[in-house]
Amino acid sequence: MVSVALVQMTSGLEPEANLAEIEMRVAEARQAGAGYVLTPEMSVVFAESRDGLRQRAGGWDGNPALERLAGMARANRLYLHIGSLAVALDDGRFANRSVLFDPAGAIVATYDKIHLFDADLPGIDAYRESATYAGGGQAVVADAGAFRLGFSICYDMRFGALYRALAQAGADVIAVPAAFTVPTGRAHWHVLLRARAIETGCFILAAAQGGQHANGRATYGHSLVVAPWGEVIAEAKGDAPGLVMADLDLDAVRTARQRVPALVNGRDFAAPATQGQGFSG
């Protein structure tokens, strides 16, 4: 068994307040026996615009938030996985970057969110996440002590091919830090996360933002842990800040994949061919 903790937050605009919240929760999780802690998407600064991020989010080198987070991992002797933070890039945009620290405080892996939400939404202006963020292009799997960890962030969960690739690359646990809106959370949160667990035979760890934020957004919360067979084994019942703890029996990964060997039964296939429009004869 390995004990993990998910931090549910209502992150605001000021890094200092968010970092203090993370520090408190990490210590609480360690006291409860966790060896791995996951925070939500945009844990350090949750701003809505490029201007808001430019005032508060630093670059990668010499970033004081990263130094403080490394100290938290080191002081508590655990793997600290910051679901994501905004990192300023040279082109004026930002990376939505996930960072894993080991118990010595060293960064052992990073992942930049691949899939960006660009959509024309009825009744409001077009939403272009790509106007603020630069999408990543590399899937990531890394050692997190007792398990192999696959990385994803929020909107990624709608793209099953990424999760299959992570599982086939050796992941037995996949992190899904998120900031889901309330309407999409009610409709899709549980079903998508359970589907990703079932199709990969992985544990899914989904740490969420929840509640009303200073940037004007409301997020769904309901941080949860899904076992490889698809059952929810731990969940925050609402959107309030707090911890979700779970013990992972990693043998369940092997058992689920033996019962439904979808990862090895998959086959390559040609793209759909256009067939005739009807029968004549």
From TrEMBL:
It comes from Pelagibacterium lacus. It comes from the Bacteria. SUPFAM superfamilies: Carbon-nitrogen hydrolase. This is Carbon-nitrogen hydrolase family protein. Keywords: Hydrolase. Pfam families: CN_hydrolase. GO terms for molecular function: hydrolase activity, acting on carbon-nitrogen (but not peptide) bonds, in linear amides. Residues 2-250 form the CN hydrolase domain. Signal peptide: none annotated. InterPro entries: C-N_Hydrolase, C-N_Hydrolase_sf, Nit1/2_C-N_Hydrolase.
